[in-house]
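Researcher: For the record, we're logging two predictions in this thread. I'll number them. Prediction 1 follows.
Model: Prediction 1, sequence and structure:
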Amino acid sequence: FSNICLEYHPTAPETLRTRPHALGLEYLSLAESGSATNAPIPEALQINAWEDFPLIPSGQVQGINIEARQSNLPISGVEFSLVVKQPDGITKTYSLNPTGADGITSIDLDPIDGPNGAIVQYEVCVLSGVSPQVCFTRSYTIWEQ
């Protein structure tokens, strides 16, 4: 199943209030367990990632923030990997500290030079607490104002 629904989290930062939720995966897991009648579903680990700047001038430092929550509570000690694909094709891997008591970890990327409009993609993977490994890709744009 690949269907999703959108969840609204009124207490989250503005850019994170509306988030996708994998409804199809929940349905599939209920069907596989054989009991789709009022079975409690454990709360999934919610991972959010965002940049300090969605548009950033070439050569400036970009911050990447990652948050882990479960049942709307922060989860500490979650480890992530971060792989950044630069516009020139170079790929860099970063080590992040585990999430703190607030469920958040952050890192400043090395400055990236690129032409106006270049897309910088990054992949975040959860290294602990989830099997199979969960990864997702985000991006931001190099843009001179």
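Researcher: Logged. Prediction 2.
Model: Prediction 2, sequence and structure:
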Amino acid sequence: DADPVTQTRRRSFDSWQPKITIKYNWNDDVMTYATVSTGFRSGGYNSPNPSIVARGISVFEDETLTNYEVGFKSMLLDRRLIVNAAAFYQEQNDYQFFLVDFLTGSQIIQNIDKVSMRGVEFEFQALLADGLDVFGGFGLTNSEIRKYAGAGAFVGNEAPTTPKYTINFGAQYVYPVTDGFDGVLRVDYQRQGK
């Protein structure tokens, strides 16, 4: 038999990614939308370590996603305040996640058969004075493993590497230094859940 570690490996991954969006402009400053979109992340190969090859985990599948989203975008107070919000539901097939293989110590990618996510996002940006902006946002995500042939006991758990919340806030001041050059002072804060 040929050595699976030294063999050339070939595989192609591709996907058609349609997207449909319907939007309605309530006026020049407020718009609502609904969209259905798809996404794709290519599959690939893990290390050709003999232990990984022997257990059949040397290849990871491509990840596909269907996303359903509704939201609004707005520019208020003579366009000095931007407020956007969205709610979404996603279905992911062959969800990819990184882990350390305990037998080899190698970092590998594996797939979870089905994962669903739902959540909301909110963001704002406000011009408080000439050159002074503040901005921020938060997101809440609830994920669930729906099917996992590799470890059925994990069905119902949260998906790995998906934080329950994200928060960001910041401010930026832009001021003229000389003709054609501006100075920028900026501070940012970001936090995410486990």
